[in-house]
């Protein structure tokens, strides 16, 4: 009977191969979903009291990464807690901080003091850490304590390390030419004249990336108008379109002929080469310059002096950005997270970091400073002696103000020495009104 | 290169093309200089380039930057993540696009052209336009914690794969439908007469014949998805889930850029693309002309 029916050619013959192939394909498809789940899934956020917390770190390059790891390991050893680490590229953390804080942030996050912290605290995205500060408050100087507060007076930040900005120079070059550290702006200018006469570029300068020139602006503003004015200007409580701001740029104009004319095409690392290679006399930059100097001899030959006094407050203010930690909002009730930042705010915690990354200085008073290099010691003294600590323009001001307004304005100024304070004020008004 | 030049009969055998060769050599060298320079910088320790500058030929050279980039940059994890994103994305894209292409090329339906235009137009849409809406959408899509550590679609591979598939499907549909249109209509008609269902026509007639196009597209898609930077950057927040393109920025410090090590890391990321290209060169070249001529 069956032979009378023509066999449809498409009736599948169930041979060994097709069976295996079908099984394989099906199995692969079935396996794919849970496999992805295994990759993307995870435990629910730890309940309070589970003795577990997490740390989101934007310190991803090798040296700081190992240093943060050492800090966390020290905390784990001390408390027995489990800490989940999420190390992400710095740019990813910084550029996406708003969406990160709103989506699925870790409990503790590496962050920066200044407006950059106060802004997100005011938006309600960070948890206050006043109870932590009750324990660690004695470890910190007044300037650093103040820098850890939000607009509402609560503490939102636990400092880790900081690094001063100042003029770096090579001792051997200065000794050879008989230069002396200038205390006043006039002495500074005549030193520049002398250096130019000696065939040096007096001040190494680099602003291809836009931010390094802000250091010069911050210092001239603080020295010309005082710390409080600088802070208010950054927070746009003062107008940009006023004589005081114009004075800043007038003072800067006196310096422009002595700054490296090729600044707009150079990165800060190229600026550093110019100074370490003795082509330039000095360089206004942060202490992180030490990370770029691989030659031990040159490193030992570096020295540092603060930006000279101009009009007010002498050299009382120093630019020394503080890096540290904040708590995301949902970590407010996690005791382990608070214990961890409390530990990070002690000398023991910060020493664990500094042991791996020696280019920065611990902020806690009880930290071990015996391993400091000469340069670090000098920097630490300068910070300790300062009455006011600023955080660098892009941390003291609205991020959009720094990136979209200040960078092009300063680069334009470096190019031709002109600045339009009225346009800056107009842009600032719309930016700060929009937040 | 010389073999192809002399083998071109149209230009007359024996007549040397000095001008062409000179031009090609100059262009090839111009393309190679930055690559070779990157490689050379990657082989030199930072201390050496600090001392002599990047414009110099000074030893010593070693592989330290590569080992550092690999271990300290955690590149093994990132390669694994790239694989987790790329493989399902390519397979899903090809599967769905081939079905769509089959439907619009082998059947006549009122909205055939509309659908094809829709898919092709989607191809022209810049991804950045949809970045913010997609982010918000995914943020508000709840998922159980067992399959997503964030409780939403954010920070999961599903989100990245879904979006990659959606964006690549337009192009693949376009190419595959052109290819399928070129296959003789008699083939499926005969199958139909023999009693083959639509599914059987698709899976046993058209798909085997489309294999060259699928191979070429697969090669292209693997390279494109491997290179994608944008979507993972937007959706993935956990550092240990980033694919290689985004993860490589781990080597960049807050202030310090160790160019030598970054060059080494960049060189490592190029290797898989080169391997794919060299191994599947034939398909790659075929892929470039796919869809160029309408069948």
TrEMBL record, chain A:
Chain ranges passing through the membrane? none
Signal peptide (from-to): 1-37
Q: Which UniProt keywords apply?
A: Signal
Q: Give the organism's phylogenetic lineage.
A: Bacteria, Bacillati, Actinomycetota, Actinomycetes, Streptosporangiales
Answer whether the UniProt record assigns the keyword Signal to this protein.
Answer: yes
Query: Which Pfam families does the UniProt entry name for this protein?
Result: SBP_bac_8
Q: What is this protein called?
A: ABC transporter substrate-binding protein
Lineage, top-rank taxon, reads Bacteria
Automatic annotation (TrEMBL), chain B:
Alphabetized CDD domains for the sequence? TM_PBP2
Q: In this record, what's one Pfam family?
A: BPD_transp_1
Instruction: Output one GO BP term.
Output: transmembrane transport
Q: Does the keyword Transmembrane apply?
A: yes
Membrane spanning stretches: 21-43, 85-104, 111-135, 155-176, 209-226, 259-280
**Where does this protein chiefly localize?**
membrane
Q: Where is the ABC transmembrane type-1 domain?
A: 79-280
User: Origin, by domain of life?
Assistant: Bacteria
Q: Which PANTHER family does the record cross-reference, listed alphabetically?
A: ABC TRANSPORTER PERMEASE PROTEIN MG189-RELATED-RELATED, SN-GLYCEROL-3-PHOSPHATE TRANSPORT SYSTEM PERMEASE PROTEIN UGPE
Q: What is this protein called?
A: ABC transporter permease
Give the species: Planotetraspora thailandica
Q: What is the lineage of its organism?
A: Bacteria, Bacillati, Actinomycetota, Actinomycetes, Streptosporangiales
């Amino acid at each position: 009977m069956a032979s009378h029916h023509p066999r449809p050619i498409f009736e599948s013959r169930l041979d060994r191969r097709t069976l295996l192939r079908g099984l394989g394909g099906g199995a692969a498809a079935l396996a794919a979903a849970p496999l992805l789940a295994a990759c993307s899934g995870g435990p629910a956020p730890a309940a309070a009291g589970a003795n577990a917390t997490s740390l989101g770190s934007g310190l991803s390059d090798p040296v700081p990464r190992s240093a943060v790891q050492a800090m966390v390991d020290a905390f784990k050893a001390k408390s027995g807690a489990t800490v989940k680490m999420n190390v992400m590229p710095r740019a990813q953390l910084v550029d996406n901080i708003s969406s990160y804080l709103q989506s699925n942030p870790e409990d503790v996050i590496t962050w920066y003091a200044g407006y950059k912290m106060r802004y997100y605290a005011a938006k309600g995205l960070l948890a206050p850490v006043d109870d932590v500060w009750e324990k660690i408050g004695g470890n910190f100087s007044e300037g650093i304590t103040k820098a850890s507060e939000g607009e509402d007076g609560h503490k939102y930040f636990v400092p880790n390390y900081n690094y001063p900005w100042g003029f770096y120079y090579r001792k051997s070059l200065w000794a050879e030419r008989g230069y002396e550290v200038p205390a006043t702006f006039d002495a500074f200018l005549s030193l520049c004249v002398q250096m130019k006469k000696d065939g040096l570029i007096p001040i190494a300068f680099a602003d291809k990336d836009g931010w390094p020139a802000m250091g010069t602006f911050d210092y001239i503003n603080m020295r010309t108008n005082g710390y409080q004015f600088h802070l208010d200007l950054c927070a746009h409580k003062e107008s940009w379109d006023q004589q005081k701001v114009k004075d800043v740029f007038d003072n800067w104009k006196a310096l422009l002929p002595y700054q490296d004319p090729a600044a707009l095409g150079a990165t800060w690392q190229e600026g550093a080469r110019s100074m370490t290679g003795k082509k330039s006399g000095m360089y206004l930059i942060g202490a992180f310059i030490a990370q770029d100097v691989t030659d031990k001899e040159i490193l030992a030959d570096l020295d540092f002096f603060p930006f000279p006094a101009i009009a007010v407050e002498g050299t009382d203010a120093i630019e020394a950005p503080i890096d540290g930690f904040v708590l995301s909002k949902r970590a407010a009730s996690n005791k382990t997270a608070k214990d961890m930042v409390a530990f990070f705010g002690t000398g023991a915690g910060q020493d664990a970091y500094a042991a791996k990354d020696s280019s920065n200085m611990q902020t806690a008073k009880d930290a071990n400073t015996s391993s400091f290099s000469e340069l670090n010691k000098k920097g630490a003294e300068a910070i300790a002696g300062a009455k006011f600590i600023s955080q660098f323009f892009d941390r003291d001001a609205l991020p959009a103000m720094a990136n979209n307004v200040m960078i092009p304005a300063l680069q334009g100024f470096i190019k031709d020495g002109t600045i339009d304070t009225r346009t800056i004020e107009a842009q600032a008004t719309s930016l700060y009104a929009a937040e | 290169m010389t073999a192809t030049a002399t083998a071109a009969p149209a230009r007359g055998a024996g007549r040397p093309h000095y001008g062409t060769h000179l031009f090609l050599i100059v262009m090839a060298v111009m393309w190679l200089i930055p690559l070779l320079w990157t490689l050379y910088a990657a082989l030199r320790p930072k201390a050496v380039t600090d001392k002599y500058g990047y414009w110099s030929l000074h030893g010593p050279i070693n592989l330290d930057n590569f080992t550092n980039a690999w271990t300290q940059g955690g590149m093994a994890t990132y390669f694994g993540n790239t694989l987790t994103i790329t493989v399902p994305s390519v397979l899903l894209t090809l599967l769905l696009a081939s079905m769509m292409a089959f439907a619009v090329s082998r059947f006549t339906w009122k909205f055939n052209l509309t659908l094809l235009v829709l898919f092709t137009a989607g191809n022209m849409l810049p991804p950045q336009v949809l970045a913010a809406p997609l982010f918000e959408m995914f943020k508000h899509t709840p998922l159980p914690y067992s399959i997503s550590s964030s409780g939403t679609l954010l920070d999961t591979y599903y989100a990245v794969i879904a979006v990659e598939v959606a964006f690549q499907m337009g192009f693949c549909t376009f190419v595959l439908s052109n290819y399928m249109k070129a296959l003789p209509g008699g083939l499926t008609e005969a199958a139909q007469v023999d009693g083959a269902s639509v599914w059987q026509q698709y899976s046993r007639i058209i798909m085997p014949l489309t294999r060259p196009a699928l191979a070429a597209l697969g090669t292209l898609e693997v390279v494109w998805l491997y290179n994608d930077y944008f979507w993972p950057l937007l959706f993935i927040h956990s550092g240990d889930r980033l694919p290689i393109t985004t993860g490589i920025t781990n080597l960049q410090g807050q202030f310090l850029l160790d160019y030598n090590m970054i060059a080494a890391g960049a060189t490592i990321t190029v290797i898989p693309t080169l391997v794919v290209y060299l191994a599947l060169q034939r398909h790659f070249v075929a892929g470039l002309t796919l869809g160029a001529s309408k069948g």
